[in-house]
Specification:
A hairpin with a 2-residue loop joins β19 and β20. This protein has one domain: Jelly Rolls (Sandwich), CATH 2.60.120. Helix content is about 5%, strand content about 50%. The strands form five sheets. Strands 1, 13, 14, 15, 16, 18, 21 and 23 form an eight-stranded antiparallel sheet that branches. Strands 2-3-4-11-6-9-12 form a seven-stranded antiparallel sheet, with no helix packed on it. A four-stranded antiparallel sheet has the order 5-10-7-8, with no helix packed on it. The termini are close together. It is mainly β.
Length: about 300
């Protein structure tokens, strides 16, 4: 199943444009992955002022450009290509992300991982940066394991459910096969170049959903080196209510999070240093009851 992205603004008034593939009306999650934005490649400024999160982990994965991250647990770091920024919200955290340089060339991914219900309510807000991630080298393909485990290579990043995220770099005109866990569902996004993935021609921007029951994945690059991102995980068991920057289990979860972010002197999300009083205010809630996102089609099983 090929999923088309949609073009959306990121970061409020001074928004840059991003290509969003998850959540999709046909498919809300791949494993615990519940959100996938691709930004760039473009010369632009990323200015995402302090904003809140609940019920998730953020995964920032730059391919080009450097991003300055600050959050309400005191982190103040720069993430560079090949490095991972992983932030766990638990019941609440706030952060900002601002690119370095004037209209730099930016390209990368911003992903969310839904936390299981117990972790969403009880995990301590936290941040970790990994600057030396493990790699798996196959015949014609190199995999950087960002989170989880692939072919016996395991990332040090903290996870709360069985999960996989990996960048795959495939040499031009080369084919490769990677072993997968059949109990995981998987999806693949091309970042640069073009390739046939499981026999399906894939170009940048489209997300190919592969379903479960697949023990291996075949890749074949065309006439240029190709970079892909592989998502996987056990199908997520919970129905999620997602709105703005919040992931919850009910309409009431979202309403409470929004009200707290808008409350003067709030403590739930903390304060992001270095921005004065600048922040992104929560938009108005829609005039309806928020309901869980559910799959509209039966996912392919292979």
């Amino acid at each position: 199943m090929l999923l088309q992205p949609r073009d959306v603004p990121l970061g409020g008034i001074r928004a840059m444009r991003v290509s969003r593939t998850l959540p999709h009306r046909e498919l809300p999650t791949v494993g615990a992955w519940c959100f996938l934005d691709q930004f760039g490649p473009q010369h632009t400024d990323m200015v995402v002022l302090p904003h809140p999160h609940t019920g998730l982990q953020t995964v920032t994965w730059p391919v080009q450009g450097e991003i300055h991250h600050r959050d309400s647990v005191g982190s103040d770091v720069v993430v560079k290509p090949g490095q991972l920024n992983l932030m766990t919200s638990g019941p609440g955290i706030a952060h900002s992300e601002i690119s370095l340089g004037e209209a730099p060339l930016l390209h990368g991914l911003q992903l969310w991982v839904a936390l299981p219900e117990a972790a969403a309510g009880n995990a301590a807000p936290a941040f970790e940066q990994h600057t030396d991630l493990p790699e798996y080298d196959g015949d014609g393909v190199r995999a950087t394991v960002v989170v989880g485990e692939l072919a016996g290579t395991t990332s040090p990043a903290t996870t709360y459910s069985p999960l996989l995220g990996a960048q795959l770099d495939l040499e031009r005109q080369r084919a490769a096969t990677i072993a997968l866990r059949p109990d995981f569902e998987h999806a693949v996004l091309v970042l640069t170049g073009r390739a046939a993935v499981a026999g399906t021609p894939l170009e940048p921007g489209l997300l190919l959903y592969l379903g479960t029951g697949r023990a291996e994945l075949t890749l074949a690059a065309e006439d240029e080196d190709t970079t892909l991102f592989l998502l996987g995980g056990e199908p997520f068991p919970d129905d999620l209510v997602m709105w703005w920057n919040f992931v919850g289990r009910s309409h009431e979860d979202i309403v409470a999070a929004r009200e707290e972010w808008e409350r003067p002197g709030q403590e739930r999300f903390g304060i992001v240093a270095g921005h004065g009083g600048d922040r992104i205010p929560a938009p108005p809630l829609p005039p309806l009851r928020l309901t869980p996102r559910r799959r509209r089609t039966t996912p392919p099983a292979n």
